[in-house]
Amino acid sequence: MPSLKEIKGRIASVNSTRKITSAMKMVASSKLHHAQVAIQNMLPYETLLEHILKSFLAAEAGAQTIYDQERPVKRVALVVFSSNSSLCGGFNANVIRIMLHAVQELSDAIGPENVDIYPVGRKVAEKAQKMGFNVKGDYCELVDKPNVKQCIDLAMELGRRFADGEVDRVELIYHHFKSAGSQILTHKTFLPIDVESELERDHERDLSSTVITKKAQDYLKRNRRKRDVREDEVKPLNDNFIVEPDMTTVLTKLLPKLAHLMIYTALLDSVASEHAARMVAMQTATDNADELLRQLNLQYNKSRQQAITSELLDIVGGSVNN
Fold this sequence. Notes:
Strand order of the largest sheet: 3-2-1-4-5
Oligomer: single chain
Shape: elongated
Largest sheet: 5 strands, mixed
Strand content: 5-15%
Protein backbone atom coordinates (compact mmCIF):
# COMPACT_ATOMS: atom_id res chain seq x y z
CA MET A 1 0.00 0.00 0.00
CA PRO A 2 1.41 3.45 -0.89
CA SER A 3 2.34 5.76 1.95
CA LEU A 4 0.43 8.90 2.90
CA LYS A 5 3.18 11.05 1.39
CA GLU A 6 2.95 9.23 -1.95
CA ILE A 7 -0.84 9.55 -2.05
CA LYS A 8 -0.65 13.23 -1.15
CA GLY A 9 1.90 13.81 -3.92
CA ARG A 10 -0.30 12.08 -6.45
CA ILE A 11 -3.31 14.16 -5.40
CA ALA A 12 -1.26 17.32 -5.98
CA SER A 13 -0.17 16.02 -9.41
CA VAL A 14 -3.73 15.19 -10.49
CA ASN A 15 -4.92 18.59 -9.26
CA SER A 16 -2.29 20.32 -11.42
CA THR A 17 -3.30 18.27 -14.47
CA ARG A 18 -6.97 19.03 -13.82
CA LYS A 19 -6.27 22.77 -13.83
CA ILE A 20 -4.58 22.43 -17.24
CA THR A 21 -7.39 20.39 -18.82
CA SER A 22 -10.03 22.71 -17.39
CA ALA A 23 -8.23 25.77 -18.78
CA MET A 24 -7.82 24.11 -22.21
CA LYS A 25 -11.51 23.29 -22.23
CA MET A 26 -12.37 26.95 -21.60
CA VAL A 27 -9.99 28.11 -24.35
CA ALA A 28 -11.48 25.59 -26.81
CA SER A 29 -14.97 26.76 -25.88
CA SER A 30 -14.02 30.37 -26.65
CA LYS A 31 -12.44 29.42 -29.99
CA LEU A 32 -15.50 27.33 -30.86
CA HIS A 33 -17.71 30.37 -30.30
CA HIS A 34 -15.57 32.42 -32.73
CA ALA A 35 -15.72 29.57 -35.29
CA GLN A 36 -19.51 29.46 -34.99
CA VAL A 37 -19.69 33.23 -35.57
CA ALA A 38 -17.55 32.82 -38.71
CA ILE A 39 -19.97 30.20 -40.05
CA GLN A 40 -22.94 32.47 -39.27
CA ASN A 41 -21.29 35.33 -41.17
CA MET A 42 -20.83 33.06 -44.20
CA LEU A 43 -24.43 31.79 -44.30
CA PRO A 44 -26.11 34.87 -45.95
CA TYR A 45 -23.75 34.60 -48.95
CA GLU A 46 -24.37 30.85 -49.14
CA THR A 47 -28.15 31.35 -49.01
CA LEU A 48 -28.16 33.95 -51.80
CA LEU A 49 -25.85 31.94 -54.06
CA GLU A 50 -27.99 28.84 -53.62
CA HIS A 51 -31.11 30.84 -54.41
CA ILE A 52 -29.57 32.02 -57.69
CA LEU A 53 -28.44 28.53 -58.67
CA LYS A 54 -31.82 27.03 -57.81
CA SER A 55 -33.42 29.65 -60.06
CA PHE A 56 -31.39 28.39 -63.01
CA LEU A 57 -32.18 24.77 -62.17
CA ALA A 58 -35.87 25.64 -61.96
CA ALA A 59 -35.56 27.17 -65.43
CA GLU A 60 -34.66 23.66 -66.66
CA ALA A 61 -31.54 24.93 -68.33
CA GLY A 62 -29.65 22.22 -70.11
CA ALA A 63 -26.40 24.12 -70.29
CA GLN A 64 -23.23 22.41 -69.14
CA THR A 65 -19.86 23.77 -68.17
CA ILE A 66 -16.44 22.19 -67.92
CA TYR A 67 -16.78 22.09 -64.13
CA ASP A 68 -19.71 19.65 -64.04
CA GLN A 69 -18.75 17.20 -66.81
CA GLU A 70 -17.84 13.64 -65.86
CA ARG A 71 -14.86 12.01 -67.59
CA PRO A 72 -12.71 8.88 -67.17
CA VAL A 73 -10.67 9.10 -63.98
CA LYS A 74 -6.92 8.86 -64.49
CA ARG A 75 -5.66 11.22 -61.77
CA VAL A 76 -7.31 12.32 -58.52
CA ALA A 77 -6.58 15.10 -56.01
CA LEU A 78 -7.59 14.77 -52.35
CA VAL A 79 -8.08 17.89 -50.20
CA VAL A 80 -7.86 16.71 -46.58
CA PHE A 81 -8.66 18.95 -43.60
CA SER A 82 -7.16 18.28 -40.14
CA SER A 83 -5.78 20.32 -37.22
CA ASN A 84 -2.34 21.74 -36.52
CA SER A 85 -2.23 20.50 -32.92
CA SER A 86 -3.30 17.42 -30.99
CA LEU A 87 -5.31 16.80 -27.79
CA CYS A 88 -8.61 16.76 -29.69
CA GLY A 89 -9.65 13.14 -29.24
CA GLY A 90 -10.01 11.08 -32.39
CA PHE A 91 -10.45 14.09 -34.68
CA ASN A 92 -7.16 13.75 -36.57
CA ALA A 93 -7.02 9.95 -36.33
CA ASN A 94 -10.41 9.62 -38.05
CA VAL A 95 -9.45 12.00 -40.87
CA ILE A 96 -6.14 10.20 -41.45
CA ARG A 97 -7.89 6.82 -41.44
CA ILE A 98 -10.34 7.92 -44.15
CA MET A 99 -7.49 9.47 -46.17
CA LEU A 100 -5.44 6.27 -46.05
CA HIS A 101 -8.47 4.21 -47.04
CA ALA A 102 -9.24 6.55 -49.98
CA VAL A 103 -5.61 6.54 -51.13
CA GLN A 104 -5.49 2.75 -50.98
CA GLU A 105 -8.63 2.39 -53.10
CA LEU A 106 -7.43 4.95 -55.64
CA SER A 107 -3.95 3.40 -55.75
CA ASP A 108 -5.45 0.02 -56.59
CA ALA A 109 -7.46 1.59 -59.41
CA ILE A 110 -5.13 4.19 -60.99
CA GLY A 111 -1.78 3.76 -59.20
CA PRO A 112 -0.32 5.63 -56.20
CA GLU A 113 1.61 8.06 -58.43
CA ASN A 114 -1.71 9.42 -59.75
CA VAL A 115 -3.04 10.50 -56.34
CA ASP A 116 -2.23 14.04 -55.14
CA ILE A 117 -2.78 15.20 -51.55
CA TYR A 118 -3.58 18.81 -50.65
CA PRO A 119 -3.20 18.83 -46.84
CA VAL A 120 -4.94 21.60 -44.88
CA GLY A 121 -3.51 21.01 -41.40
CA ARG A 122 -0.12 19.99 -40.04
CA LYS A 123 -1.20 16.58 -38.73
CA VAL A 124 -2.39 15.25 -42.07
CA ALA A 125 0.56 16.91 -43.87
CA GLU A 126 3.06 15.11 -41.63
CA LYS A 127 1.27 11.78 -42.11
CA ALA A 128 1.10 12.19 -45.90
CA GLN A 129 4.80 13.04 -46.12
CA LYS A 130 5.71 10.14 -43.84
CA MET A 131 3.74 7.73 -46.06
CA GLY A 132 5.46 9.07 -49.18
CA PHE A 133 2.35 10.49 -50.86
CA ASN A 134 2.40 13.23 -53.52
CA VAL A 135 1.91 16.29 -51.29
CA LYS A 136 0.98 19.50 -53.09
CA GLY A 137 1.39 22.81 -51.29
CA ASP A 138 1.38 23.86 -47.65
CA TYR A 139 -1.91 25.18 -46.30
CA CYS A 140 -1.35 24.66 -42.55
CA GLU A 141 -1.75 28.35 -41.72
CA LEU A 142 -5.35 28.25 -42.96
CA VAL A 143 -6.33 26.20 -39.90
CA ASP A 144 -5.12 28.80 -37.40
CA LYS A 145 -6.33 31.79 -39.45
CA PRO A 146 -9.17 30.87 -41.86
CA ASN A 147 -8.84 33.15 -44.86
CA VAL A 148 -11.29 33.54 -47.73
CA LYS A 149 -8.64 34.69 -50.21
CA GLN A 150 -6.41 31.66 -49.65
CA CYS A 151 -9.42 29.35 -49.95
CA ILE A 152 -10.28 31.00 -53.27
CA ASP A 153 -6.66 30.58 -54.41
CA LEU A 154 -6.79 26.88 -53.52
CA ALA A 155 -10.14 26.44 -55.30
CA MET A 156 -8.82 28.27 -58.38
CA GLU A 157 -5.70 26.09 -58.43
CA LEU A 158 -7.85 22.94 -58.28
CA GLY A 159 -10.24 24.33 -60.90
CA ARG A 160 -7.38 25.20 -63.23
CA ARG A 161 -5.87 21.72 -62.97
CA PHE A 162 -9.30 20.17 -63.55
CA ALA A 163 -10.01 22.41 -66.57
CA ASP A 164 -6.57 21.67 -68.06
CA GLY A 165 -7.08 17.93 -67.64
CA GLU A 166 -4.26 17.51 -65.10
CA VAL A 167 -6.71 15.90 -62.67
CA ASP A 168 -10.03 14.22 -63.48
CA ARG A 169 -11.61 14.34 -60.03
CA VAL A 170 -11.11 16.30 -56.80
CA GLU A 171 -12.42 15.00 -53.46
CA LEU A 172 -12.81 16.63 -50.03
CA ILE A 173 -12.32 14.91 -46.66
CA TYR A 174 -13.36 16.96 -43.63
CA HIS A 175 -15.64 17.04 -40.56
CA HIS A 176 -19.07 18.60 -41.06
CA PHE A 177 -19.97 20.56 -37.91
CA LYS A 178 -23.52 19.79 -36.75
CA SER A 179 -23.24 20.76 -33.08
CA ALA A 180 -20.73 20.99 -30.26
CA GLY A 181 -21.29 17.32 -29.52
CA SER A 182 -21.62 15.98 -33.09
CA GLN A 183 -19.23 16.26 -36.04
CA ILE A 184 -19.84 14.15 -39.15
CA LEU A 185 -16.77 12.91 -41.05
CA THR A 186 -17.51 13.70 -44.71
CA HIS A 187 -15.91 12.40 -47.90
CA LYS A 188 -17.42 13.92 -51.04
CA THR A 189 -16.59 14.89 -54.62
CA PHE A 190 -15.57 18.52 -55.16
CA LEU A 191 -14.97 18.45 -58.93
CA PRO A 192 -16.84 17.79 -61.14
CA ILE A 193 -19.55 19.67 -59.24
CA ASP A 194 -22.94 18.03 -58.98
CA VAL A 195 -24.99 21.18 -58.45
CA GLU A 196 -28.25 19.48 -57.48
CA SER A 197 -26.74 17.19 -54.84
CA GLU A 198 -24.61 20.06 -53.49
CA LEU A 199 -27.66 22.28 -53.04
CA GLU A 200 -29.53 19.45 -51.29
CA ARG A 201 -26.71 18.57 -48.87
CA ASP A 202 -27.09 18.64 -45.09
CA HIS A 203 -27.20 22.30 -43.98
CA GLU A 204 -28.20 21.60 -40.37
CA ARG A 205 -25.91 23.20 -37.80
CA ASP A 206 -26.39 24.16 -34.16
CA LEU A 207 -24.47 27.45 -33.90
CA SER A 208 -26.08 28.67 -30.68
CA SER A 209 -24.62 26.36 -28.05
CA THR A 210 -21.21 25.18 -26.86
CA VAL A 211 -22.65 22.73 -24.31
CA ILE A 212 -21.27 19.23 -24.80
CA THR A 213 -22.29 17.13 -21.78
CA LYS A 214 -24.70 14.32 -22.61
CA LYS A 215 -27.24 15.49 -20.03
CA ALA A 216 -27.23 19.02 -21.45
CA GLN A 217 -27.47 17.76 -25.03
CA ASP A 218 -30.50 15.61 -24.14
CA TYR A 219 -32.12 18.61 -22.44
CA LEU A 220 -31.57 20.82 -25.49
CA LYS A 221 -33.07 18.16 -27.77
CA ARG A 222 -36.20 17.90 -25.60
CA ASN A 223 -36.73 21.63 -25.13
CA ARG A 224 -35.40 23.12 -28.34
CA ARG A 225 -37.99 25.07 -30.27
CA LYS A 226 -39.03 23.44 -33.47
CA ARG A 227 -37.84 25.47 -36.37
CA ASP A 228 -40.15 25.75 -39.31
CA VAL A 229 -37.60 25.68 -42.08
CA ARG A 230 -39.52 26.48 -45.19
CA GLU A 231 -37.60 26.69 -48.43
CA ASP A 232 -39.20 28.99 -50.96
CA GLU A 233 -40.00 27.28 -54.19
CA VAL A 234 -37.92 28.83 -56.92
CA LYS A 235 -39.69 29.05 -60.24
CA PRO A 236 -38.92 30.77 -63.50
CA LEU A 237 -40.21 34.31 -63.67
CA ASN A 238 -42.19 33.43 -66.77
CA ASP A 239 -42.15 31.12 -69.75
CA ASN A 240 -39.66 33.35 -71.52
CA PHE A 241 -36.87 33.15 -68.92
CA ILE A 242 -34.08 35.20 -70.47
CA VAL A 243 -30.44 34.97 -69.40
CA GLU A 244 -27.80 37.33 -70.72
CA PRO A 245 -25.47 36.73 -72.43
CA ASP A 246 -26.36 32.99 -72.26
CA MET A 247 -26.90 30.22 -69.71
CA THR A 248 -23.50 28.57 -70.24
CA THR A 249 -21.62 31.82 -69.67
CA VAL A 250 -23.55 32.62 -66.49
CA LEU A 251 -23.08 29.13 -65.06
CA THR A 252 -19.38 29.29 -65.94
CA LYS A 253 -19.19 32.34 -63.65
CA LEU A 254 -21.41 30.95 -60.89
CA LEU A 255 -19.96 27.45 -60.52
CA PRO A 256 -16.46 28.66 -59.56
CA LYS A 257 -18.08 30.82 -56.88
CA LEU A 258 -19.86 27.71 -55.59
CA ALA A 259 -16.51 25.90 -55.60
CA HIS A 260 -14.91 28.74 -53.60
CA LEU A 261 -17.77 28.53 -51.13
CA MET A 262 -17.41 24.74 -50.79
CA ILE A 263 -13.71 25.02 -49.86
CA TYR A 264 -14.32 27.85 -47.39
CA THR A 265 -17.31 26.06 -45.84
CA ALA A 266 -15.30 22.85 -45.44
CA LEU A 267 -12.51 24.82 -43.73
CA LEU A 268 -14.88 26.56 -41.31
CA ASP A 269 -16.65 23.28 -40.54
CA SER A 270 -13.32 21.57 -39.89
CA VAL A 271 -12.06 24.35 -37.60
CA ALA A 272 -15.29 24.38 -35.59
CA SER A 273 -15.24 20.58 -35.37
CA GLU A 274 -11.62 20.64 -34.13
CA HIS A 275 -12.43 23.04 -31.29
CA ALA A 276 -15.57 21.08 -30.39
CA ALA A 277 -13.62 17.80 -30.34
CA ARG A 278 -10.91 19.35 -28.18
CA MET A 279 -13.53 20.75 -25.82
CA VAL A 280 -15.12 17.31 -25.47
CA ALA A 281 -11.73 15.66 -24.92
CA MET A 282 -10.70 18.18 -22.25
CA GLN A 283 -14.10 17.95 -20.55
CA THR A 284 -13.73 14.16 -20.44
CA ALA A 285 -10.19 14.49 -19.06
CA THR A 286 -11.41 16.92 -16.38
CA ASP A 287 -14.22 14.55 -15.38
CA ASN A 288 -11.76 11.66 -15.17
CA ALA A 289 -9.47 13.79 -12.99
CA ASP A 290 -12.39 14.58 -10.67
CA GLU A 291 -13.17 10.88 -10.33
CA LEU A 292 -9.52 10.03 -9.72
CA LEU A 293 -9.27 12.76 -7.08
CA ARG A 294 -12.33 11.37 -5.32
CA GLN A 295 -10.77 7.90 -5.20
CA LEU A 296 -7.38 9.23 -4.06
CA ASN A 297 -8.94 11.35 -1.32
CA LEU A 298 -10.91 8.32 -0.14
CA GLN A 299 -7.74 6.21 -0.16
CA TYR A 300 -5.84 8.95 1.68
CA ASN A 301 -8.49 9.25 4.36
CA LYS A 302 -8.63 5.49 4.84
CA SER A 303 -4.84 5.24 5.13
CA ARG A 304 -4.74 8.19 7.50
CA GLN A 305 -7.48 6.69 9.68
CA GLN A 306 -5.68 3.35 9.68
CA ALA A 307 -2.43 5.04 10.77
CA ILE A 308 -4.22 6.87 13.60
CA THR A 309 -5.88 3.66 14.75
CA SER A 310 -2.55 1.84 14.69
CA GLU A 311 -0.94 4.58 16.79
CA LEU A 312 -3.80 4.50 19.30
CA LEU A 313 -3.49 0.74 19.61
CA ASP A 314 0.24 1.11 20.26
CA ILE A 315 -0.39 3.71 22.96
CA VAL A 316 -3.13 1.65 24.64
CA GLY A 317 -1.03 -1.51 24.44
CA GLY A 318 1.97 0.25 26.02
CA SER A 319 -0.07 1.64 28.92
CA VAL A 320 -1.55 -1.81 29.67
CA ASN A 321 1.92 -3.39 29.76
CA ASN A 322 3.13 -0.70 32.15
